[in-house]
Amino acid sequence: MKRGDTPVRALLWVLIVTAAGAGCGAKPPYRVFEPPPPTAEELERLGRIKLADSPAGAGGEAASPPPRVWIGIPDRRAEGAALGAAIGAGVGAAIAASTVDDWGQFDVPTETIVATFIGTTVGGAVIGALLGQPGPEAHAAAAKLRGHAAGIDVASLVREGASRSAKLQAYGEGPGAAGPGGTLMIQVVAYGTRSTGGGRACPFVAVRTRLADASTGQVIYDSTSDLRGRERAFHQWSYAEGANFRREIESLARELGTSSVDRALTPRE
User: In angstroms, what CA-CA distances link 207 with 33, 136, 141?
Assistant: First the structure.
């Protein structure tokens, strides 16, 4: 191998990774944001902290919207983009090499670099687009999963998990006269499935957790977190009337409810 091949190989791998990243599917409608929890002084100042009766907005915000069912249908865009980029780059480099008489000892001909770039871009885009459309089986499974998801009361399950938090119970039993009191609100943002590549998906639940001063409505802590379950072939989640999908969502909702409250009420150091 000539030393001049190194820049071409480096360029090729960069372009392949870029093309593969461009083929990723749509992201769920939320962004994980977990700032540091309140300080011990802030929590002590509030005194007794209770779970809100509903996830209504705080600090002048409008009432929270209902959770969104998000069924991410996996596709093969990433794999297709990488495969197309590799094939296109190889073809482009081969064509350019056949037209170059003198490779030189250390220099890579400009024609090879240009042809590699064009082949990578075109190949990744074309094959990635061809594999970017889910098939009928995936669409049928998605329709079933949306129906199953709509029948799950995720908000109640998250609240059930939140009420099990030992930290919430400890703060809820604190002296009421010690401060103005705190209100902990937990809202389900979205739930459903997320694509994990290779035709597979995992159930997920995402929640927003806020701690506010009960007397003023001032929000002291505001975070958005999610929890993802096991991976399976996407269409398998719809089998048996979505029994495994339902169990996974229910388990994730309770677990995330507990962990989100624990995080909000664990003083940062």
Answer: 10, 31, 25
The model carries a pTM of 0.72
Taking residue 133's Cβ as centre, other Cβ atoms within 10 Å add up to: 12
Residue pLDDT, tens place only, 185-221: 999 999 999 998 888 999 999 999 999 999 999 999 9
Q: Coil, helix or strand for 73?
A: coil
Largest CA distance in the chain: 88
pLDDT in tens, 69-117: 999 998 655 555 555 555 655 555 555 555 555 545 445 556 556 555 6
Number of residues that this document lists for the chain: 269
DSSP helix/strand/coil, 70: strand
Nearest to 149 by CA among 226, 227, 68, 208: 68
Instruction: Dig out the tokens for 189 from the structure.
Output: 């943002």
Q: What does R_g of the chain's alpha carbons equal in angstroms?
A: 26
Interatomic CA distance for residues 62 and 191, integer angstroms = 21
Residue from 37, 209, 71 nearest 143 by CA: 71
- In order of 4, 102, 114, 120, the CA distances from 99 in angstroms are 17, 9, 13, 19
Residue 242, number of CB atoms within 10 A of its CB = 21
Residue-wise DSSP of 205-260 = EEEEEEEEETTT--EEEEEEEEEE---EEGGGGGHHHHHHHHHHHHHHHHHHHHHH
Token digits of residue 169: 């119970």
